[in-house]
Amino acid sequence: MSFRARLTLFFVLIVIVPMLSVAIVLFRLIADNETGKADAGLRVTSRVAVHLYDEARAAADDVVAAVGTDRELAAALRDRRERAAQERARALLATRAIERIELTGGDVDLAVGSADAIAPTERTLVGERGERFGRLEVSVTAARDYAREVRATTGDDVAVTAGGRLLASTLRELRLEQVPAAGRPVDVEVGDERYRAVTVDEPGFGGRTVAVTVFGDEAGEGAVTRSRWLAAGILAGFLVLALTFAVAVSRSLQAQIGSFLAAARRIASGDFSTEVTTSGRDEFAELGAEFNKMSHQLEARLEDLRQERARLQTSLRRIGQTFASNLDRDALLEIVVRTAVDGLDAGGGRASARPAPGRPLQEVVRAGEIDESLEILRRAEAEALAGGQAAEASDGDAHALAHALSGPEPGELIGLLSVVRTGAPFEDRDRELLSYLAGTASVSLQNVALHEAVQRQAVTDELTGLFNHRRFQEAIVAEVERARRFNQPVSLVMLDIDHFKRVNDTYGHQQGDRVLAEVARVLRESSREIDAPARYGGEELALVVPQTDLDGAYQLAERVRQQVEALEIPLIDGSGSIRVTASLGVASLPANAHDGGSLIAAADAALYAAKRAGRNQTVRADGKV
Question: Does the chain have fewer CB atoms within 10 Å around its N or its C terminus?
């Protein structure tokens, strides 16, 4: 094999093959990055759609109360006059801007209004003597109006399906079979357009599911194509440059073989000022030319390294943008620290954050070796905390750089990002990169905190601080399933404040809210961490008690009842205080029920037995007091 052939093979192995590998990996990273950003935006839109759906259900709360207390409807239901009840329900549709009314589970079933109505709220109708007329569901929202609202709010298209029907869609050409099932985002083709779509399930009438599907742009194909063309152009330019140099070097070596050996001996003796005299066009002459160009290529190589570092920093900035939507605090900080350590060529680093507002900073993640440099690292971090920005500290050959992570409020500090290295001090570009990473991490941590707050609000009743009805239903289903799987007991306590309407009528609803909040506080403070205290509806509270049999739940309910009876709740106007009592019903599974629904029914029946027996007492589902 000739020397030229060997150079060609060497060029292919060290330039062409690595460049092809880098191109494949880079193109895949670009596609994954754009898909991740598209999916993150789609999840935000789906959360907005869920929020609007919950608002639509909340808007029906007052209406369902008015329908449930309508005297004409109640009289018709009590007398089992189905036709009169149907006519009164239709009259209520017109007078109260109601889309649909359904009544199930009683002697009279109603279903009037638009079949495309969604987002119902419900109430159990109970007569003055405790008799049940069924479950009343009312909706004030039509699927088409909800779809328009989501489209106007988010700018993305939306479809609403239920019971095998397409109720509404902002995409004209959409067909039912094109709507994906609930789960992860998928690609969907509608007409000539491709979308990225995700479906979430929401509660509908009669326990049926309403599927809300949001359609967004398909993974930023335009951005992917532009980024790939840019990367391909840079790689092609680098390849052309490398190929040009290879050809020039090959020809020069062949021209310099004449004086190569003599010049090589002088260079071997330490005379680096000697230039190799080259002549001819063979391979050894080209090698002689390489000796002459060695010093020049060193400078050129340094410049190439500077350009590579600049490209690396640009890539790191792009990576920083990808984790700006990450909602995992620990994983986010780990990415930030490792990126900072790699980008600044540091020996190690760490990130600290507050576990909760008002709490001191705690180390969350570290990378590399920092144990031998902890003292200098702490000095830099203390200065960064004091100044609220970046700070440096040095001790001999060790250098530390720290940057504070800012919160949403001016002057608020939510964390620290710091790195340490030995050798060269930090330069301005190092400080700029760490400042950029710290700023991006700050925004991401704020997004995490906002996401956690929204999650808490989604399952918490605002007035009482207890779980809301939706979270209660999830908890009862989960605990019943766990009890069946591990053969463990689970109990349910239902609590109703006695004569609560009298409190509202006598002292006003604000005083009633205070009474409800105080009773909820007693229930919450009496609960264990594994229990699930919730506001079931109105003045009725509930407590899911896992791993507890009927006797244990009864003892807990009695303690709660006694503590409620002992409450002295100040009046809002400061003129004194009032006292209230509560009636409680206790049921347990498997002794008194077979599933979550029957467990609720058993506890509810025990509660009403307590109220009929004179109130201010606890009744077990087995009839014992």
Answer: N
DSSP string, 227-240: HHHHHHHHHHHHHH
Q: Residue 392: which H helix or E strand, with range? A: strand 390-395
Half-sphere exposure of residue 28, counting CA atoms within 13 Å on the CB side?
Answer: 6
Query: If you count them, how many residues does the chain have?
Result: 625
Query: What does the DSSP assignment read for 369-390?
Result: --GGGHHHHHHHHHHHHHHTSE
Catalytic residue among 34, 102, 283, 539: 539
User: Could you give the strand order of the β-sheet that contains 413-422, starting from the edge strand earlier in sequence?
Assistant: 362-368, 348-353, 413-422, 398-406, 390-395
What's the whole-model pTM score?
0.37
**Alpha carbon separation from 298 to 287, 290, 304, 320 (Å, rounded):** 16, 11, 10, 33
Distances (CA, A) of 326 to 34, 45, 220, 451, 471: 14, 16, 19, 10, 25
Q: What is the mean pLDDT of each run of 10 residues along the chain (625 residues)?
A: 65 72 69 68 87 89 82 82 86 84 82 89 79 83 91 90 90 88 88 88 89 80 66 77 67 54 59 61 63 58 65 58 58 82 86 76 84 85 83 88 81 83 88 85 72 62 89 91 89 95 93 94 92 91 94 95 94 91 91 73 94 94 67
pLDDT digits (tens, 9 = 90+) for 359-416: 788 888 888 888 888 888 888 888 888 877 888 898 888 889 988 887 777 767 778 8
Alpha carbon distance 410, 527 (integer Å): 38
Which value, to the nearest 10 degrees, does the dihedral of the CA atoms of residues 44, 48, 50, 52 take? 180
Nearest to 93, CA basis, from 48, 164, 142:
142
Residues 6 or more apart in contact with residue 310 via CB below 8 angstroms: none
Distance spanning both ends of the chain, measured CA to CA? 101
465 touches 448 (CB < 8 A) = no
Active site residue 363: no
